[in-house]
Design brief:
Layout lengths: L1 E4 L4 E4 H18 L4 H10 L4 H25 L5 H28 L2 H32 L20 E4 L4 E4 L1 H17 L4 H10 L5 H26 L5 H22 L4 H24 L13
Antiparallel strand pairs: 1-2, 3-4
Length: 304
């Protein structure tokens, strides 16, 4: 069943869109990421213009993340204080990112830049996460092999403006969470992602938060930042396709509940290595798209 998307100006199979939304919803509940790092490239691959994919993909993340975070609230694995600090930085970053996106769209360079952003960030983060996860699995298999305890002190603990985060069991400066939130906000606006693939490893390895608390807290922040980025895109770039967003939302809400249940049956190290593998897979596909010569070298566009 074909459905016409008015802003994207293409017709797409409705069941394909529902399936994509469901897949990303499962990832949201399973890994604590919004899933935009996968959704936006997949929308590229099925023929959605990058500007529309970025703006609308951010909207889909809101619903799948909201559905998943409810399950984490029931398990009391959301640090609301840490989430609020990350959110403050994220809103500022998202506002800046939308302005950059609008400028690049006006210059006609947004498609190439978005793809390059994906290749660089996904390749770097996925590679680092994969290597670290393999080391963690090896340590866990050694005789007597519990994983080493998190470091109690580091550069994060030497910074001023400290705050106590009881749910995470930490007393650290608010500066690193604010900077992480701002960086993720910029990525959310430019790449159409929730930023969980950056935020989750940053919260674990930079801030030293427990993995179970990280997932729920990441989802809490993602909801508000992506909602704000979507609103800004709708006002500034007019690239949000409501029909596409609704189809993705319907699949995403169901998938998120499935993913949150599956996540309770896997160890933290296994979750991280699965996420890293997915990130690298998407990065490889995007890199090939940039390197391989297209069948049609020239395309016809309509100037706005």
């Amino acid at each position: 069943m074909q459905i016409y998307l008015p802003i994207a100006e293409v017709s797409i199979n409705a069941f394909l869109l529902l399936g994509l939304g469901g897949l990303v919803g499962v990832l949201s509940g399973l890994f604590g990421v919004g899933g935009g790092f996968l959704m936006t490239p997949l929308l590229f691959f099925i023929g959605i213009p990058p500007a529309v994919a970025v703006a609308t993909g951010a909207n889909q993340i809101v619903a799948s993340s909201f559905s998943a975070v409810l399950a984490h609230f029931r398990r009391k694995t959301v640090d609301l204080r840490m989430g609020s600090v990350l959110l403050a930085g994220g809103l500022v970053g998202a506002a800046l990112g939308v302005q950059v996106f609008a400028t690049l769209k006006a210059m006609g360079q947004v498609d190439l830049l978005v793809t390059l952003f994906y290749v660089v960030f996904l390749g770097t983060v996925g590679g680092l996460m994969f290597v670290e996860s393999l080391r963690a699995l090896r340590r866990a298999r050694r005789p007597g092999g519990a994983l080493p305890k998190r470091r109690k002190h580091g550069w994060v603990h030497a910074l001023p403006l400290k705050m106590k985060f009881r749910t995470s069991g930490m007393y650290i400066s608010v500066i690193p969470p604010l900077l992480i939130g701002a960086g993720v906000g910029v990525l959310s606006a430019i790449m159409g992602v929730g930023g969980g693939f950056i935020m989750v490893p940053a919260m674990i390895y930079m801030l030293g938060m427990p993995t179970k608390v990280v997932i729920g807290t990441s989802l809490f922040q993602i909801i508000f930042v992506t909602a704000f980025a979507t609103l800004m895109h709708a006002i500034t770039t007019q690239s949000v396709d409501v029909v596409l967003a609704v189809m993705l939302l319907l699949g995403g809400v169901v998938g998120a509940q499935i993913g949150s249940r599956l996540g309770t049956n896997l160890k933290a190290e296994q979750l991280r290595i699965l996420l890293a593998s997915l990130v690298l897979l998407v990065c490889g596909k995007l890199a090939l798209e940039l390197l391989i010569q297209p069948s049609e070298i020239y395309s016809i566009g309509v100037s706005e």
